[in-house]
UniProtKB/TrEMBL annotation:
Compartment(s) of residence: Cell membrane; Golgi apparatus membrane
Organism of origin: Gossypium mustelinum (Cotton)
Gene Ontology CC entries for this record: Golgi membrane; plasma membrane
Record carries keyword Lipoprotein: yes
Main location group: membrane
UniProt superkingdom: Eukaryota
Quaternary state and interactors: Interacts with PI5K2.
Database matches in InterPro entries: P-loop_NTPase, Small_GTP-bd, Small_GTPase, Small_GTPase_Rab
SMART domains: RAB, RAN, RAS, RHO
Function: Involved in membrane trafficking from the Golgi to the plasma membrane.
Pfam families the record matches: Ras
Name of the protein in its database record: Uncharacterized protein
SUPFAM superfamilies, per the entry: P-loop containing nucleoside triphosphate hydrolases
GO molecular function terms listed in the Swiss-Prot or TrEMBL record: GTP binding; GTPase activity
């Protein structure tokens, strides 16, 4: 019997890499813990460098494996954490709704994204600690936490599906008279992300 295609053997249809960034103490680790383990802690153990967790969700009948990287907000880890921007397909920009400076700093985090992440990376702004304010999202109460991760995952899945279908016409071009130029270009585009 023929072996099943590689895709069918994988335990997911899409692998999506997400990154959590924002000032120290805004609740990035708590958001991730809430989303991946369904738990919350009031103790503040600052992230050292970088950490990640996995959760597989289902969207439109597809299994989406989310690999979520939690960065340290502290300045002293910036060199380590920015190295992870490049591989991210989506970035969650987190601030604390009770801490205005964490919101003002979002512009600096966006600058970091512009400098270090891929141009087409998806972004979502998350105002955390809503239980302490009248806002929208909180790791403590689980308010809208699922919605945030599902929303960005859905957009990225759509983007990946769109680029899959767009890639097809460039394969067909190989058989056309101007194949040399066309195929060369297509190879460059498809092979750029190794
Ligand atoms: P760094 O790792 O230093 O970048 O910090 P962080 O952004 O990961 O913050 P962390 O998740 O460790 O949370 C910091 C503190 O905020 C902890 O004491 C949490 O208990 C608290 N916290 C996080 N989310 C919430 C929330 O939704 N509501 C409330 N009230 N407190 C929260």
């Amino acid at each position: 019997m023929a072996a099943p295609p590689a895709r069918a053997r994988a335990d997911y249809d899409y692998l999506i890499k997400l990154l959590l960034i924002g000032d120290s103490g805004v609740g990035k680790s708590c958001l991730l813990l809430r989303f991946s383990d369904g738990s919350f802690t009031t103790s503040f153990i600052t992230t050292i460098g970088i950490d990640f967790k996995i959760r597989t969700i289902e969207l439109d009948g597809k299994r989406i494996k989310l690999q979520i990287w939690d960065t340290a907000g502290q300045e002293r880890f910036r060199t380590i954490t920015t190295a992870y921007y490049r591989g991210a397909m989506g970035i969650l920009l987190v601030y604390d709704v009770t801490d205005e400076s964490s919101f003002n700093n979002i512009r600096n985090w966006i600058r970091n994204i512009e400098q270090h992440a891929s141009d087409n990376v998806n972004k979502i702004l998350v105002g955390n600690k809503a239980d302490m304010d009248e806002s929208k999202r909180s790791a403590k109460t689980n308010l809208n936490v699922e919605e945030v991760f599902f929303s960005i995952a859905k957009d990225i899945k759509q983007r990946l599906a769109d680029s899959d279908t767009k890639a097809e016409p460039s394969t067909i071009k190989i058989n056309q008279p101007d194949a040399a130029g066309g195929a060369g270009q297509a190879a460059q585009k498809l092979g750029c992300c190794g």
